[in-house]
Amino acid sequence: MSEMIYFDHAATTPVHPRVVEVMTPYLTQVFGNPSSVHGFGRKARQALEQARDAIARYLDADPQSLIFTSGGTEADNMAVIGGALAHQEKGRHVITTQIEHHAVLHACEYLQNLGFEITYLPVDDTGSVRMSDLINAVRDDTVLVSIMYGNNEVGTIQPIEEIGRFLQERSIVFHTDAVQAFGVLPLSMRELPVDMLSVSAHKINGPKGVGALYLRKNTAFSPLLHGGSQERKRRAGTENLAGIVGFAEAVRIASEERVERVAKYKEIKETMLTIWREAGIRYQVNGHPEHVMPHILNVSFLGIQTETMLMNMDLASIAASSGSACTSGSLELSHVLKAMNLGDERAHSAIRFSFGITNSVEEAARAAGKVAQIVKRLQKE
Q1: Which of 172-176, 263-267, 340-344 has the lowest mean pLDDT?
Q2: Cα Rg of the chain (Å, integer)
Q3: What stretch of H or E contains 51?
Q4: Using an 8 Å Cβ cutoff, are 103 and 175 in contact?
Q5: Contact by Cβ (8 Å): 107, 80
Q6: For residue 344, how far is the Cα from the chain centroid?
Q7: Which is the catalytic residue, given 225, 326, 333, 361?
Q8: Disulfide engineering: 69 pairs with which of 2, 28, 75, 320, CB 3.0-4.6 Å?
Q9: Which residues, at least 6 apart from 314, have a Cβ–Cβ distance to it below 8 Å?
């Protein structure tokens, strides 16, 4: 079996060797609890705050506005549930979209059980939210809006600045899940009109099990975890120090390499599409043609079931996915593609290719050629 080509970086990424290197001492030597007052604790605390500073610099944010979490899911839950509960005296109406990650959608379902009313905004066939739908959905009792920055399945980027400015004028708290955008798109919390923003380490070649929530100063918030005064009393529990140190190093590397990475991802995408176009196979690209994440390519190979295509690609040593890793174990149709109303044939034949630092243009060309052969064979059958 030839070496596997990994095109599922939107699900998770390999940990960068530099990240492993900086983490190791914090698993073996600097093991103190950052809340302890003795020398071991102080050394751990110093490393924790240096990591916080590094990530805050990348986000152009105040370090005190960052709350470390166990990942993107916890950050989303904290923002949606913690934000809504803190503002429930003002109202119990929350707005999100039909294409959010399940970490947001299930948090909204939880709020519904508590008596909140949730409006799920539709999207157009490119996966974009229409401003008119948001404007019409806002009510006097709307306290929170959660709209993802870039979609994890089709890569569509939402008009976050326009949405944020509109909500700021109405003093409505705005959260964005930026897990896929982080490290790929430039994000400045001084310029971006959002109150809360979720990020994760394992999407940018950092370790699994660590993420962060950006919480703008003076934004009311109810903590979900209780038991200690860590993270300025906003998230109880001993901090994952080695993970946080690794997260900061992954952010530094992503910051240094971002421009080159994005250029490579765009070239990979164009190379694959050109090969498929020249091969004459039937396919359609899903997502917005321009406002799209550079590392995500969602394609429907018409007439071929997603599972059939994935199995054949796996046999050809190409790893891709049907969409979100959280739901890809089920044969259920993607809620994102369903919301986009693409029609059954496109929705049931969609494959997500997502690129990362281990991929090269040459490798992508080789993979695209193999994919074209598979598609030609299966479209004939």
Answers
A1: 340-344
A2: 21
A3: helix 39-59
A4: no
A5: yes
A6: 26
A7: 326
A8: 75
A9: none
CA–CA distance, 24 with 26 (Å, rounded to integer):
5
Q: Are residues 235 and 333 in the same domain?
A: no
Q: What is the tens place of the pLDDT at every residue in 273-320?
A: 999 999 999 999 999 999 999 999 999 999 999 999 999 999 999 999
Could you tell me if 322 and 240 lie in one domain? Answer: no
Domain tally for the chain? 2
**Helix, strand, coil percent content, the chain, rounded in steps of 5:** 40, 15, 40
Residue where one domain finishes, among candidates 253, 278, 307: 253
The order of strands in the sheet holding 173-177 is 66-69, 211-215, 196-200, 173-177, 142-146, 93-97, 117-121
- Eight-state DSSP code of residue 4: P
- Identify the CATH number of the domain in which residue 195 sits: 3.40.640.10
Please tell me whether residues 230 and 290 are part of one structural domain. no
| Average pLDDT score over the chain | 96
334 and 374 fall within a common domain: yes
**Residue range 221-271, pLDDT digits in tens:** 999 999 999 999 999 999 999 999 999 999 999 999 999 999 999 999 999
- In this structure, the dihedral spanned by the alpha carbons of residues 99, 101, 105 and 110, taken in order and rounded to 10 degrees, is 180
* Residue 326 annotated to the active site: yes
Same-domain status, 158 and 53: yes
Count helices and strands in the chain by DSSP H and E runs: 14, 12
Listed in sequence order, the DSSP H helices in the chain are: 17-23, 25-28, 39-59, 72-77, 83-86, 102-113, 131-137, 160-169, 230-233, 241-279, 306-315, 335-339, 344-347, 361-380
Q: How many CB atoms sit inside 10 A of residue 167's CB? A: 22
Domain shared by 56 and 100, yes or no: yes
Residue 30, helix vs strand vs coil: coil
- Three-state secondary structure call for residue 94: strand
